[in-house]
Design a protein that fits this description.
CATH class of one domain: Mainly Beta
CATH architecture of one domain: Distorted Sandwich
Structural class: alpha+beta
Strand content: 15-25%
Radius of gyration: 26 Å
CATH topology of one domain: Beta-galactosidase, Chain A, domain 5
Number of helices: 17
Shape: globular
Distance between the termini: 24 Å
Number of strands: 36
Strand order of the largest sheet: 6-7-8-9-17-13-12-11-15
Amino acid sequence: MIKKQILILTFISLVNTICWSQTDYTQFVNPMIGTSKMGHTFPGATAPFGMVQLSPQTNFQPMLKADGSYNPETYEYCAGYQHKDSTIIGFSHTNFSGTGHSDLGDFLVMPTVGELNLEPIKTKDGQKGFFSTFSHATEEAHPGYYKVDLDTYGIKAELTASDRVGFHKYTFPKSDNAHIILDLVYNVYHYDNKNVWTFIRVENDSLITGYRETKGWARTRTVYFAMAFSKPFKSYGHKKYDDIQYNGFYRKFNESENFPEMAGKDIRAYFNFDTNEGEQIDIKFALSSVSTEGALKNLKAEIPHWDFDKTKAETKAKWNKELSKIEVQTMTPEDKITFYTALYHTNLSPILYEDVDGHYRGLDQNIHTSEGFTNYTIFSLWDTYRALHPLFNITQPQRNNDMIKSMLAHHDQSVHNMLPIWSHYANENWCMIGYHATSVIADAMAKNVGDFDKNHALQASVSTSNVDYFDGIGFYKEFNYIPEDKNGSSVSKTLEYAYDDWCIAQMAKQLGNTKVEMDYLKRSTYYENLFDASIGFMRPKLANGEFKKEFDPLDTHGQGFIEGNAWNYGLYVPQNIDHMIDLMGGKERFTQHLDSLFTMELADKYIEKNEDITRDGLIGNYVHGNEPSHHVPYLYNWAGHPEKTQSRVRMITSTMYGPTVEGLCGNDDAGQMSAWYIFSSLGFYPVTPGSPNYALGSPLVEEAKIHLDNGKTLTITTKNQSQKHVYVKRVLVNGTPVKNNQISHQDIMNGGEIVFEMSKKP
């Protein structure tokens, strides 16, 4: 456990010198938080939920070694950027924020001067590639804006973005040999043959269009672009890295220089300029999932001008609008930076995935038009159903409604008739377990969010839960649990399916479908079949009905769990916590289990095979750096010890988060890690999405105002708040005392005031 108390010197300077504005909340955001170690966020320029995530890429690590085995160093570059690096190889237009696996990194742009070099890291003879060194002293990152000096070339790079267009501004030295490189070989998690095809058209001396298709985590992913230069290029060319066996009658041409079509599997293109000292060359780079025509429409609609500062200001205003939805006063400036940076992270994804005319590429690879909704993609649902989407039901109800409609469209386009599992860019990548779109839908229904077709949502959820060939569902239905000898990670899958089935039952109950409700309430109890009362743990069971003999509840590898063990992941029964406590011996025995979980020592051997669990995110055997444990600190409430929930939550918010580059204790996982912090800082958490209730904790803020879409404001006030006053003496909702350590969603949406009276003692 690493205590994060020390601010980077630049933050100290920031806190001491700027005039804190009550309206410019972007000043409290540091996009560098979580950009090293396991954080894996990107520091570049993007609009809230924007299609473009324009960000520096600091190194290149292929996913596979020369012998075809996995290269663990590639994991450091899930978001393309590592703060420890001192090199930049370019700026790509698509990035994930904090996912444990990765993809994207499309359309790497790099300005250079001097002799043209098209190799990013080093040439075949071992010489330096086109990368540049840089210093963090000249690096700036703010919501919607990024700046850095490329020291190797004396070029200042500045980036901003609208929803669908990246805007580059490069200030060059005097040169008659300046270049803009467009690297279409580069990918995040690159491997040989990841690129399927690339095509570029030089439309005129300042506009190019094209596309790239890749096969990776998303196996059929096509992204189109339009790239406009503020100054005509004097010449251009490209290099193919293909093993060309047949080129038809294109062999008539010298394609490598000044030929207006470029096509191949792996291509790096370049555009040459003469520049004066201090001359700026701007680039507008629009994306589309549909066509180059769509990219051009996006370009013309969103940034029809060449005023970089105008776009920068517009995007800053968009960020300020989102960040101002929650106004907080905190005990320290550091807490305010951490809070608003976390809120910033929760607005990075899912991303907009349609053109300005509503056209988008669907899961069936056909072009669809969104009708009555805005289409989104990047659904990291095993992570985000827990707190991010529940947070959206408070801060982004309309967007969450559109996201659910996007999930339903995914289902309708799916040949499997399934809702998304983990999907991005018109592809299902099947990552992780469960069918948690059902949780997102059930939570929205329980909280009366959205106008999506609820009967259709129930039908889609039932259909998804009955695809027998998906990840052990057939065995789950046959045995009423998943046998470990039939399908791996069997305990985790059984627990998560049982919760998702409870969500389906809640949906059916609301719609009056009694048969579905009863069927899925029964399925939601299947977790009972894997509880071994003789040892007090969830345990993998075999198809013959016997528990797996070789079993270690501390091990995170090969014991029926994924990214967790029986001690922590075995506590995942959010749909029936009281019964789980009874199974484990009652409230006092359960409390002892939680106490041991937080205080025991976990040897390295138990986590060494799991790259998603590191020491930074551990408190004893409690894993805050990974999602399955995020509800666990709140379980003391059900065991009759809310004071232990309060002390644990405050300890986690203070030690697992902070305003440094290592200020996240694990992958942000598309916003889930940050959403936990937002909820917990406000004093409550959605332990059971699909229920209208939140468990109370211990607020970190002094005061918070949540501005709701219904026009009301909820004020959260803490009395006697201090770093030592972590215990809650009493909670009042509009003057009425809370008696059961819970508040409802309606309590929030009604507005008014929630008062926490804090104390130094339990």
